[in-house]
Design a protein that fits this description.
mainly alpha, Growth Hormone, Chain: A, about 0% strand
């Protein structure tokens, strides 16, 4: 028998984490409700798969710049202050997007501005999590945060597809602004302030670039980070093209797209629960490459242009592979230098969002010149290649042994 490595209740027993958790639920729900509304609005106006995909991904695209040049903020500004401030600015931007009659160019510009804030917020929250969740509580806590994101998609995309038949996109955008305000209040009164790490004396940009250079100089960490960015970047193709795919099959655009966008996160939620309850720390790490491959194998069937219900089933199975993130969480904690852990976690999150956004944009661009089904299949083949390269990199065995030793297990994960 293997020993599961931490439970969700270990994280939920900590009051500060509960505040962060609820704040994440609130803000994610509002954001997802607004995201499909905005994407459909732009697609209806322009009839362009590229602009629809770019709109869906736009908040993600500037994250590489902000996550790179501003990553040192997590060591310079108290985390709670940074979290609350980012949420309040996001609320203002989302409210501006809800202004009736706002031109498409203005909506895209505001979405870009939101994308500049997200990596700063994500870095501050990433820096807070190891302090709030010590020991075995960290990985299940991180897992719960991902579950929130996926459940928000399951409920939000399904509800927003129906809601758009009842209310205007502006109403959903205004709901997003309110959700940011509520999240800011929960973080302000539910978490405690922690002093920032002493500054390096360098400028913010120089300090940020220097820290990233030190992170990327650590070979195992570099390989883990690249793997963690590559898999989501290729896996987003079906989500990026959900609206055009639904339209190609003559289905109701909003309902069909909502079903497709719900299926993959539903599989992810199931996998997160199953992985936390049944896999030891060593097996979470050992299975990383195989689970990453599972994200892509079902997508190969899109070459046959499956109907919406079958496509949704394929995306559910693909979502089960997302539990590779459990092993990645564990290995990053060991691979990152302790003095740079907060930055490593922040850079991981912000660059992952950038590469996801890039994946959305590239998928949309490719769909301007090739069938949507061919684009999804091609992305799946690239993802399988990335998983295979990581499996051959030699990173996993080292950290499997460390995890097994920490739990008093032999290398096979047995008691």
């Amino acid at each position: 028998m293997t020993a599961p490595a931490g439970r969700f209740r270990d994280a939920l027993a900590i009051a500060e984490f509960r505040a962060i958790f609820v704040a994440h639920i609130v803000s994610m729900t509002g954001t997802v409700l607004a995201q499909l509304a905005l994407t459909v609005l732009v697609y209806v106006r322009t009839d362009s798969p590229l602009l629809a995909a770019v709109t869906f991904a736009l908040p993600m695209l500037p994250q590489l710049v902000a996550g790179t040049l501003l990553s040192a903020l997590v060591d310079r500004v108290p985390n709670r202050r940074l979290l609350v401030g980012c949420n309040l600015v996001s609320a203002v931007l989302a409210a501006a997007m809800a202004i009736p009659g706002a031109p498409t160019a203005a909506l895209l510009a505001l979405g870009f501005a939101l994308g500049l804030i997200r990596p700063v917020f994500g870095g501050a929250r990433a820096a807070t999590m190891p302090q709030v969740l010590p020991g075995d509580a960290y990985v299940p806590g991180r897992s719960l945060m991902r579950v929130v994101a996926q459940v928000a998609q399951i409920g939000g995309f399904a509800v927003s597809g129906i809601a758009l038949t009842l209310v205007s996109p502006g109403t959903l955008l205004l709901a997003d602004a309110v959700s940011f305000g509520l999240s800011a209040a929960l973080l302000r009164f539910g978490t405690r302030e922690r002093p920032p790490t002493a500054g390096s004396g360098q400028s913010l940009v120089r300090d940020s670039l220097s820290g990233i250079g030190r992170l990327m100089a650590v070979r195992p960490l570099r390989r883990l980070l690249v793997f963690g960015w590559a898999v989501p970047a290729f896996a987003v193709a079906p989500e990026a093209l959900a609206v055009p795919y639904s339209a190609e099959l003559s289905a109701n655009d909003t309902v069909g797209a909502g079903l497709l966008l719900t299926a993959l996160p539903l599989g992810t939620v199931v996998a997160e629960f199953a992985g936390n309850w049944t896999l030891s720390a060593g097996r979470q790490i050992r299975l990383m490459a195989a689970l990453a491959a599972l994200c892509f194998l079902p997508l190969l069937a899109f070459a046959f242009r499956p109907p919406i219900p079958v496509a949704a089933g394929l995306l559910f199975v693909a979502g089960l592979g997302a539990s590779f993130q459990l092993g990645l969480d564990r290995t990053l904690l060991d691979a990152a230098p302790k003095e740079l852990l907060a930055r490593a976690l922040g850079v991981r999150a912000s660059w992952m969002m950038f590469f996801q956004g890039l994946g959305f944009a590239v998928a949309g661009l490719a769909a301007e010149f090739a069938p949507v089904t061919a684009v999804i299949t091609g992305a799946a083949l690239c993802g399988l290649l990335a998983a295979g390269v990581f499996a051959l990199s030699g990173v996993q065995p080292r950290y499997v042994a460390l995890a097994d030793q920490a739990l008093g297990q032999d290398p096979q994960g047995e008691r």
